[in-house]
Amino acid sequence: MATPVNPFKMAQHQFDEVAEQLQLADNIRQVLRWPLREFHFQIPIQMDDGTMQCFRGYRVQHNDASGPSKGGIRFHPAETIDTVRALATWMTWKCAVADIPLGGGKGGVIVDPAGLSDAEKQRLCRGWIDQMWRNIGPRLDVPAPDVGTTAQMMGWMMDEYSKLIGQFTPGVITGKPLGGGGSKGRTEATGFGVVVTIREAAKRLGLDPAKCTASLQGFGNVSQYASKFFIEMLGGTVVAVSCWDRQDKTSYTFSKDDGLDPTFLMSITDQYGTIDKGKARDAAIKIEDSNAWMEKDVDVLIPAAIEGVVTKETVSLIKPTVKILAEGANGPCTPEADEVFKNSDIYVIPDFLCNAGGVVCSYFEGVQNDMNYYWELDEVIDKLDKKLTNAFQSVHEMAEMSSVYNRNAAYMVAIDRVVRAMQLRGWI
After folding, report:
1. What are phi and psi of 326, to 5 degrees?
2. Could you say which of 349, 376, 391 is where a domain stops?
3. Scanning 57, 100, 169, 374, which has its CA 20 to 30 A from the CA of 400?
4. Residue 216: which of 180, 179, 255 has the closest Cα?
5. Does one domain contain both 295 and 146?
6. Residues 130, 60: one domain?
């Protein structure tokens, strides 16, 4: 059985490798290896049956030299502090590589949201804010949705914060519903960004994306829109997606050699990304085991679910046809898998570049909240495309100039920007 991956140790390992290449001073390394602040707390909630239940909550603020901390809140039964630390760390690098004035943060609650009623979810969301409201805010730390949380839940959180401070403050949370301070384009932004980076990689590799096939892990928000845009923007074909079945407590791969229709799949997928197997079979979609998505003879692989799925044990499943691996998820490839990719012809688009579309659009949402003026969808998408294209270009150029692996190049770009912000503020 594979050894469980500790995501924070993985994040530190990645950082240490590049810090050594950059010959960063030890004092700077120590500041950046660990979060600046961590919050651990209990959230007591009255359940619908009248009983009281306590949930464990977290918020980690990794670094805010460049601006307020920024990052989502996960509601997940397997949430751990090390997962939150890793995701907060990666958010620092993600904001820096995208060149937006924000730092890295992340939050979470150990809970399976599928087991809660809407009323219980609302009480839990408000309870999280009750514990954290003094340490978040538009100029301090701006949460957002993540795995297990939704735009509606962000609306409840924003409302609770506004009540506690006594004024309407939409900019405290991003990823809110449209009409409640949300930005057009935010729902599809991460998946859109994944496809923008694939488009740019294909240009560098001389590939015609219209002739490319793709396989994706996951069918939550990121995978849904990445698969749609891969077809609609690039003209490619999606032959497989996988998803977690919360009833069977296992994953399945849904495939079709002549191409899946993401819009149809979304119509038979619940809010937690579980595809209805019966309706899929009725549509002549093949259902395979959990790792089948990784074993497809495709041009593009997109792990877009959870961290630590491409490991030293599973990397050998990837077929030689794969030319681009686009990390739609955070930390899907372990350092051991990276060592394989460094010696292969696969062009890896690292996570905090590939999936930065969500945080860039969240930044846009905060800007619009400050102005109290909201852009049309075309304007949001155009700004998002330009921002991500520039970010891709900076990483690609660094990789070529320094003759380093793409992930190391992304770290070099990000670390340089964060260290410069720390220097300008007199921290170091």
Report:
1. -105, 115
2. 349
3. 100
4. 255
5. no
6. yes
Last residue within a domain, chosen from 172, 195, 216: 172
Domain that holds residue 256: 187-349
| CA distances from residue 79 to 33, 38, 243 in whole angstroms, order as listed | 21, 15, 19
Q: Is 94 a catalytic residue?
A: no
| Sequence-ordered alpha helix ranges (H) in 67-179 | 81-97, 118-132, 151-165
Dist CA 151 CA 157 (whole Å): 10
For residues 332-358, average pLDDT:
95
Say whether both 156 and 196 belong to one domain. Answer: no
Interior CA angle at 129 toward 147 and 359, to 5°? 45
Nearest C-alpha neighbor of 200 from the set 388, 372, 375, 8: 388
Tell whether 155 and 224 lie within a shared domain: no
Distance CA 82, CA 108 (A): 11
Together in a domain, 64 and 167 = yes
In a domain, 44, yes or no: yes
pLDDT for the residue numbered 120: 98
And the tokens for 147? 């795995």
Of 331 and 348, the structure prediction assigns the larger pLDDT to 348
CB atoms within 10 A of CB 259: 15
| CA-closest candidate to residue 230, choices 293, 324, 149 | 324
The helix (H) or strand (E) run that includes residue 412 is helix 406-424
In order of 21, 265, 305, 308, the CA distances from 252 in angstroms are: 40, 14, 13, 17
DSSP, collapsed to helix, strand or coil, labels residue 107 as: strand
Q: What are the tokens at 77?
A: 């039964």
The CATH number of the domain where 304 resides is what?
A: 3.40.50.720
Domain contains 26: no
User: How many residues are listed for the chain in this entry?
Assistant: 428
Of 19-23, 231-235, 242-246, 412-416, which range is least confident?
242-246
Strands of the sheet with 237-245, listed across from one edge: 286-288, 250-255, 237-245, 213-217, 300-303, 324-326, 347-349
pLDDT at site 244: 84
Express each pLDDT in 147-177 by its tens digit.
Answer: 889 999 999 999 999 999 999 999 999 999 9
Same domain as 249, residue 197: yes
Dist. CA 251–CA 245, nearest whole Å = 6
Residue 369 tokens read as 């909240």
Q: Classify residue 391: in a domain, yes or no.
A: no
CATH code, 133:
3.40.50.10860
**Which position among 70, 94, 106, 228 bears the catalytic label?**
106
Indicate the Cα dihedral angle 382, 104, 9, 27, nearest 10°: 120
Is residue 141 domain-resident?
yes
